[in-house]
Write a structure and sequence with these properties.
The structure holds two protein chains of two kinds. Chain A is an all-alpha fold. Chain A has helices spanning 2-25, 32-46, 48-52, 87-123. In chain A, helix 1 runs antiparallel to helix 4. A two-stranded antiparallel ribbon of chain B has the order 1-2. Classes of the chains: A mainly alpha, B mainly alpha.
Chain lengths: 145, 356
């Protein structure tokens, strides 16, 4: 019985840890889409004057590409508010949290069973030899009489 | 190839002498009485410390402790790295939980008089852990290098300057010069990730060893009556109850970190005037307000000097509390209990006042 409970607990612990390990293995930048979005935003801030005059753009592909604008350090004027990078991440996090709380509730259910069993064994003085100093020890109030 | 786990276990046991530790764990008992709930605060602090270490290492992988890189790297953590803002939020909330639990733990020890003989040294190491935890919070507050953290650090590092003789030197040592600059950031980072962890672990080991040596205290009235207090075995009865509490705390921490994630303010400007509404972290608010209520000059000395001296005296008195309250069962003991209650009311009222 104990072995089965132990296996169940280990399985749940593995379930709890698996998304964490998956998150740790994820790449630094979420996906190519997010990277492209980031680059577009950066180019908007640095190359805004050029974009304002569309007629200056080279018409034919034969003309050599215009020099890349020098990246200027953009001074942030707004605080960074924590936010999800997209709906995908948001959903993943909410699902993870729902699953986390469910795991906690289930684990607590099993742990309470384990506590009850441990208390019962202790109350019965199952592991205490005759010469144990705990032999005539009073029981804690939580165990009742 | 079949691995004999028993042989592997015996190999480790031979080298690390694990059997006596396991034997001790099975023999160790935890007294059970109406105040037993406070025993769980100690282990909860360890849980938060572990979370701090893990999330701190994750943040340190990307953080750059330089004038140009500090706020930019935190911005990168929050916007580019997957769930970086959540990791930062967990680190920040875990620090709050840790300090709150250290305070609750200390107050529980105070009100149950558990610091009495022979546990004086345990109390003193506990006080050291509280101070180190607060210094952890103070040094960590500057690391985002935003406008609020810069101003709060300027105020905070200026406080020791009010102490005569050594004050100015202490301020210079903390700042790495006369003002808060990039050098301050570098040394705060060094303190936060290198020196303070070593200090906290050294004190923590002594604290835990002392707790194991003396055992957990029983209620004062039972000790006086020489009553045999009921107890539970540490393993597995007590530790399983602890795990249940850890689960709930972990879930609460992660949920709060998700819902109330901290933002990152504007990058610090060394030339800019201090923004309005500069406030330290919540655990320094009552000290901050105490400093504010004192007038600029009080006779030959400054009001700040008087406030700093009073705060230092209070800290020293609390540190030596077991020796001051050497008769906890007598009237003197009750006076110290009421002083503790007054102290808690004072801290709460002044913290709220500071926020208004």
């Amino acid at each position: 019985m104990r072995a089965i409970r132990f296996i169940i607990l280990v399985a749940f612990a593995a379930l709890v840890l698996s998304p964490l390990t998956a998150a740790a293995q994820a790449p630094a930048v979420p996906d190519a889409k997010a990277k492209a979005k980031l680059e577009t935003e950066l180019s908007k801030t640095t190359a805004a004057p050029q974009e304002a005059k569309p007629e200056v753009k080279p018409a034919a592909p034969a003309v050599p590409a215009a020099k890349k604008p020098i990246k200027k350090e953009v001074v942030r004027t707004e605080p960074i508010v924590p936010a999800f990078s997209g709906i995908k991440e948001q959903t993943a996090v909410y699902v993870f949290y729902a699953w986390l709380w469910l795991s906690i509730v289930i684990l607590i259910y099993f742990l309470r069973l384990w506590v009850k069993e441990a208390d019962r064994v202790y109350k019965a003085k199952y592991y205490e030899p005759e010469e144990s100093p705990l032999k005539d020890h009073p029981l804690p109030p939580c165990l009742g009489d | 190839m079949k691995i004999d786990l028993k042989k592997v276990g015996a190999w480790f046991d031979d080298r690390l002498a694990l059997t006596p530790i396991f034997k001790y764990m099975t023999k160790k008992e935890v007294p059970q009485h109406s105040h037993s709930i406070w025993y769980y605060t100690g282990s909860s602090i360890l849980l938060f410390l572990m979370i701090q270490i893990v999330t701190g290492i994750m943040l340190a992988l990307y953080y750059k402790p330089t004038l140009e890189g500090a706020t930019a790297s935190i911005g990168r953590i929050m916007t580019e790295l997957p769930l970086g803002w959540l990791v930062r939020s967990i680190h920040s909330w875990s620090a709050t939980f840790m300090i709150a639990f250290v305070m609750v733990h200390l107050l529980a020890i105070w009100f149950t008089k558990s610091y009495r003989k022979p546990r004086e040294a345990t109390w003193m190491t506990g006080m050291m852990l509280l101070v180190v935890s607060m210094v952890f919070g103070f040094t960590g507050y500057l690391l985002p290098w935003d406008d609020l953290s810069l101003s709060a650090t300027k105020v905070g590092t200026n406080i020791p300057a009010a102490i005569p003789v050594v004050g100015k030197w202490v301020t210079q040592f903390l700042r790495g010069g006369d003002d808060v600059t990039g050098d301050t950031l570098t040394r705060f980072f060094l303190f936060h990730v290198c020196i303070l962890p070593l200090v906290i672990f050294a004190i923590l080991v002594v604290h835990i060893l002392l707790v194991q040596k003396e055992g957990m205290s029983v209620p004062l009235k039972d000790e006086i009556a020489k009553k045999k207090v009921p107890a539970l075995p540490f393993w597995p009865n007590f530790i399983l109850r602890e795990v249940i509490i850890w689960m709930v705390l972990l879930g609460t921490l992660l949920t709060l970190a998700l819902v109330f994630a901290p933002s990152l303010g504007l990058p610090a400007d060394l030339m800019a005037p201090a923004p309005e509404g500069v406030k330290p972290e919540w655990y320094f608010l009552f000290l901050f307000q105490t400093l504010k209520i004192f007038p600029a000059n009080m006779g030959p000395v400054t009001g700040e000097f008087v406030a700093v001296v009073l705060i230092l005296l209070a800290v020293v008195a609390i540190f030596f509390l077991p020796f001051l309250d050497n008769k906890p069962d007598k009237k003197k003991g009750k006076i110290f209990t009421w002083l503790g209650v007054l102290g808690v009311i004072y801290a709460i009222v002044f913290s709220i006042w500071s926020l208004l």
